């Protein structure tokens, strides 16, 4: 019966009350999850593709089918935030304890419990809670400087998957406000240091053609953190 109830449950985000669970706020929870958890975890409804930690949709799928309810998921997520026990991939380290605390942790737990292992996309207020990362307009160099920002929400993406510049010596700048470590690499041209916040750059000479830029932090490029720089005469 529980599995059937989950299937016919009303879609999220159709009204203001549908994004509230008790005192927790799913909109704030989604925003916090993307920023603080998305770089390590896959969660379909949040649009996150992190590979360092467990795929949450897969981790809960069988338990939900076996009858684990929303309250159970919420409690497990909250407990894991407070007392993490899972190591990440090589170089990623262990999830820090109390990455989120208090109300923020409750909001994250509420959101994950509401959407985990569900297909489709969030709608309404939840759908608009986080802008679609990486969908910005192509970045155009200003003179001999091209600035490619990392997504400020913490998503494993740059602000745009496309950039344009004229041939010649080009200074490539990566800005990062997210707190998630990133770098900027173009094979054969250069690589910035990895930084969680701030600005880094390298310079190189470019001839006309297409060049792939990407983040070399483990798991970030496979999650979609790359784009194409088109250099014209």
UniProtKB/TrEMBL annotation:
Ranges where the Cytochrome c domain occurs: 24-116
GO MF: copper ion binding; electron transfer activity; heme binding
Annotated Gene3D superfamilies: Cupredoxins - blue copper proteins (2.60.40.420), Cytochrome c-like domain (1.10.760.10)
Alphabetical keyword list: Copper, Electron transport, Heme, Iron, Metal-binding, Transport
Electron transport in keyword set: yes
Keyword Cell division: no
Pfam families hit by this protein: Copper-bind, Cytochrom_C
Protein name as catalogued: Cytochrome c domain-containing protein
Organism per entry: uncultured Solirubrobacteraceae bacterium
